[in-house]
Write a structure and sequence with these properties.
This protein is mainly α. The protein contains 18 helices and seven strands. The protein folds into two domains: 170 residues, SecY subunit domain (Preprotein translocase SecY subunit, Orthogonal Bundle), CATH 1.10.3370; 228 residues, no CATH class.
Length: 490
């Protein structure tokens, strides 16, 4: 896909509105003000229920992991969340990685065309996913499908433009802060739920087991804090390579290579892909006749009525998709155990089974511990793939890093000034750290999910990583502004 095709495609998509960059660099205080405005608008969407959707959906734990990964809140105007942005990015990265789409991201013109195509693809995905979500949500009346789909589409498109505005006017990307905001809300809401329903509720029941059960109710909060501390520790691990400045003898520095070189991006992409796949195939619940067995083999969706509230919910409870998804076989995500009790929770993990319908007839019941292992392995593999892919796509490969260091005059002490030498040394660290870091973030996310930590282990991992990146960016912004260099930064 050459530049000529890119020009023709972007010309067709030029009607898509875009957010203009500020005419002059914004001060740190102005960026904070814009960030506050954008986050306020996001939480207005976050708190506004979609008309026509059964409001019990807002408390349905089935959608909790989707909400964390997509920075969404099912049943509100922000039901679709950042999913279209992430999926459009995944698709275009795949096309560019496969050299089907050749774009020089260092060229501002080609980069602008690429961003136009990516935003247009995100809007198209938002329209499709809004219809899918509207079909999956419990509606007050089936005739409200069109109205709900339009509301969700508008909310998703607004989120796309809020993210673009945040990138150009705020302190970081909207995706990052939207995820962190959603996790913060989940942690606060979960803590309140533990106090009111868990601890106080257990004590009110009385009996000899009241106090132990009340203490166990705080297990989710304990695991959340523990996972957060582990994440902070892991983020602080790094390797530092010595550097020397070739233009000035005696001037040197260090190149930090963090253990989590690709941060949380592999987990975001891998989790989004898994969550989106389980959502896309929810239509299999309506397949009947001769293809029903094959549909159930791919994914068995149990349709549950919502009682007096009306509508139905489709819960993935079996099939191949279930084995690779972080979903409990009672139709709930692994967390939160404060809803069903740690005893029943872990007993189900160890002794529960899920149905796997084979295409040639019959059913095999898969132990839940096999499901846990399968999900963890798939998540690790996807994180490694996306981690390596992201390093190449974002210019963080050994070759790109060597070229960047060479261009500003840095070299490795004791070696002659040659980018190939720097590349060979970086090749000893970056590929290995990329794989190991991707494995660690996948294990942290998977294991932390199994503990039932408030906000999910995935959410805590993402939030700590995002806050770490935001802190580093705020620190850099503060240095630039205090030195008076912001007017030279475009």
């Amino acid at each position: 896909m050459n530049l000529g095709f890119l020009n023709r495609l972007s010309a067709v998509l030029s009607v898509v509105p875009h957010i203009r960059k500020p005419h002059e660099p914004l001060s740190f205080r102005q960026k904070l003000k814009w960030t506050a405005i954008i986050m306020s608008l996001y939480f207005i969407l976050f708190s506004t229920p979609a008309f026509g959707v059964n409001k019990t959906t807002l408390q349905n734990p089935v959608f909790q992991l989707l909400n964390i990964v997509f920075a969404s809140r099912t049943g509100t105007l922000i039901t679709v969340g950042i999913s279209p942005i992430v999926l459009a990015s995944i698709v275009l990265q795949f096309l560019q990685g496969a050299e089907l789409l050749k774009i020089d991201m260092s060229n501002p013109y080609e980069k602008g065309k690429f961003q136009t195509i990516q935003k247009s693809a995100a809007i198209a995905i938002a329209l499709v996913e809004s219809a899918i979500f509207a079909n999956s949500l419990p509606l007050i009346n089936p005739s409200f499908f069109g109205i709900v789909a339009i509301q969700l589409a508008l909310g998703a498109i607004i989120v796309i433009y809020l993210d673009e505005t945040m990138v150009k006017y705020g302190i970081t990307s909207g995706i990052n802060l939207f995820i962190a905001g959603g996790v913060a809300f989940a942690i606060v809401a979960g803590t309140i739920n533990i106090l009111l329903v868990g601890a106080i509720g257990q004590i009110a029941q009385g009996g000899s087991s009241a106090l132990p059960n009340a203490i166990l109710a705080f297990g989710s909060l304990f695991f959340a804090i523990l996972v957060m501390l582990i994440c902070i520790y892991v983020y602080d691990i790094k390797i530092e390579l010595p550097l020397a400045f070739s233009q000035a003898r005696g001037v040197g520095g260090r190149l930090p290579i963090p253990f989590l070189y690709v941060s949380v991006l592999p987990v975001i992409l891998a989790s989004s892909l898994i969550a989106s796949t389980t959502l896309w195939f929810s239509f299999l619940s309506g397949v009947t006749g001769q293809y029903a067995q094959i549909a159930h083999f791919i994914g068995y969706y149990q349709v549950n009525a919502n009682g007096a509230g009306g509508g139905t919910t489709k819960a993935l409870t079996g099939g191949i998709l279930y084995l690779i998804a972080p979903t409990f076989n009672i139709g709930e995500p692994y967390p939160p155990p404060y809803g069903i009790g740690y005893g029943a929770y872990f007993n189900n993990l160890l002794a529960g089974v899920s149905p796997l319908y084979v295409p040639w007839g019959g059913v095999v019941y898969v132990p839940e511990w096999v499901h846990i292992i399968t999900y963890t392995i798939v998540l690790i593999i996807l994180c490694i793939i996306f981690g390596k892919f992201w390093v190449e796509m974002t210019g963080q490969s050994p070759k790109n890093m060597a070229d960047q260091l060479q261009s500003v005059g840095w070299q490795i002490p004791g070696f002659r000034r040659d980018p190939r030498i720097i590349e060979s040394i970086l090749n000893k660290y970056i590929p290995t750290i990329t794989v190991l870091g991707s494995i660690v973030v996948a294990l942290l996310a998977a294991v932390a999910n199994l503990t039932g930590a408030i906000g999910t282990g995935m959410g805590i991992l993402l939030t700590v990583g995002i806050m770490y990146m935001v802190y580093r960016q705020l620190e850099q912004e503060n240095v630039i502004e205090s030195s008076g260099l912001e007017k030279y930064i475009s």
